[in-house]
Design brief:
Length: about 150
């Protein structure tokens, strides 16, 4: 290796993909952690932002993230209710409370600031080009939009 090479020349794309993915995840986890919520809380709060939902609808939305040890997000919904951020509406539906709307707005602001930090110094065109290149690479490796299973 040449000592005058910059970081981009010293490491292949896989290195940068994994590093950036890990750093984005760490930043996002820190933002959610500072608000004392998990990614499941965040997902459910965003779902409920559009209006009341049934437990089945919430589980359907979270299906990709459910695991054998957690076949439903009901405990997370119950936690949101215990915090006063959500409340039952009838026997099978929940909705955000005013406190929940404020909490979600605060978390959304923190997430937006973190996303801004990630893209600092990057133009919109550069960002779009990077995403387009990654999408083409994914397609080259066998990904197809019709088989998109959401986040990996």
């Amino acid at each position: 290796m040449n000592a005058s090479e910059g970081p981009a020349e010293r490491h292949p794309i896989g290195y940068w993909l994994k590093l950036v993915d890990r750093l984005i995840d760490q930043g996002f986890d820190a933002v959610l952690g500072s608000a004392a919520v998990t990614p499941r809380h965040w997902q459910i709060l965003n779902l409920l932002e559009s209006g009341p939902a049934t437990y089945a609808q919430i589980d359907d939305e979270a299906a990709l993230y459910l695991a054998p040890h957690m076949p439903t997000v009901r405990p997370v919904v119950d936690d949101l209710c215990n915090r006063g951020w959500a409340t039952p509406v009838g026997p099978d539906r929940v909705t955000l409370t005013e406190t929940g709307v404020k909490a979600l707005s605060d978390i959304q602001s923190r997430v937006a600031a973190d996303r801004q930090r990630v893209t600092e110094g990057i133009t919109e065109d550069e960002y779009r080009a990077a995403v387009e290149v990654l999408a083409r690479m994914a397609t080259n490796l066998g990904w197809r939009e019709e088989r998109d299973m959401g986040p990996v």
